[in-house]
Amino acid sequence: MTIKNIVVVGAGVMGRGIAYVSALAGFQTTIVDVSENQLQDVYQHAKMTSEKGVQRGKLTVEQSLHLLNHLHTSIDLETVAVDADLIIEAVPEKRELKKHVLEIADMHSPAHTVLASNTSTISPTELGSYTKRAEQVAVMHFFNPVHKMRLVEIVKGLETSNDTVNIIQDVSEKMGKETVEVNEFPGFVTSRISALVGNEAFHMLQEGVASAEDIDKAIRLGLNYPMGPLELGDLVGLDARLNNLKYLHETLGEKYRPAPLLEQYVKAGRLGRKTGKGVYDYTSKGELMEK
């Protein structure tokens, strides 16, 4: 099956990043969100990111224009699902919300449409059970920032067909990504490692081992990570990081127990970039933290 039309549901950090690489790859891409403001931000983000790519010699002017011409927005999933070949769910990590999105996508999309989720923790078998096409449901896990990170983690559920995996693999490669196929298990591969590193960074910050800046700098320069774990937590949202850790703690045991400092930050509403303050204060120095 040839994929031409892709719908991305959720205009947050991950959703708009996925929509960006999808449109850049030449897919007619529609991003759906209930917030008009979020959708306006999507287009501005794509324009700004592509312009930076042109300035740095990563993109041509023609590629930038091509990207913007292939990127569309909508507040109505039911309408755009009708023409979708692939629908990628990228809403917050809440089961009921994902269930709602997948049920609507399943109900209104054509029989051939593949349904993928960008979840970092939830079982693809469970996600497939929300639909009447479990064989066409899988996890398609991107990484942040999507336009820079090369990996897509493909996770099969119990009923996921090989054809579905092959379609997702082909689409990922056209987006310029490399893929790994992972057996279903809590946290997959990357989320388990990332959660441990991020949680340990919070423990070190709590214990006064080093400042947040020096912890992140040490990991970036010493371990060659593109972004420090505390910076990354702020970028994806400390509430999302905490929810992932709670799930992994429940399913995999004590080593994933969230650091008390992380829980304090979330209780205080310090969720990261989206609230203006997390580990770092972005109201005064946000631009300095851009990598």
Automatic annotation (TrEMBL):
Oxidoreductase keyword on record: yes
Keywords: Oxidoreductase
Coiled-coil ranges per UniProt: none
Domain 3-hydroxyacyl-CoA dehydrogenase NAD binding: 6-184
InterPro entries: 3-OHacyl-CoA_DH (IPR022694), 3-OHacyl-CoA_DH_NAD-bd (IPR006176), 3HC_DH_C (IPR006108), 6-PGluconate_DH-like_C_sf (IPR008927), 6PGD_dom2 (IPR013328), NAD(P)-bd_dom_sf (IPR036291)
Pfam families per the UniProt record, alphabetical: 3HCDH, 3HCDH_N
3-hydroxyacyl-CoA dehydrogenase C-terminal domain sequence ranges: 187-282
Presence of the UniProt keyword Phosphoprotein in the record: no
Pathway, per record: Lipid metabolism; butanoate metabolism
Domain of life of the organism encoding this protein: Bacteria
Family according to the record: Belongs to the 3-hydroxyacyl-CoA dehydrogenase family.
NCBIfam families xref list: PRK09260.1
Protein name (record): 3-hydroxyacyl-CoA dehydrogenase
Organism expressing this protein natively: Ornithinibacillus salinisoli
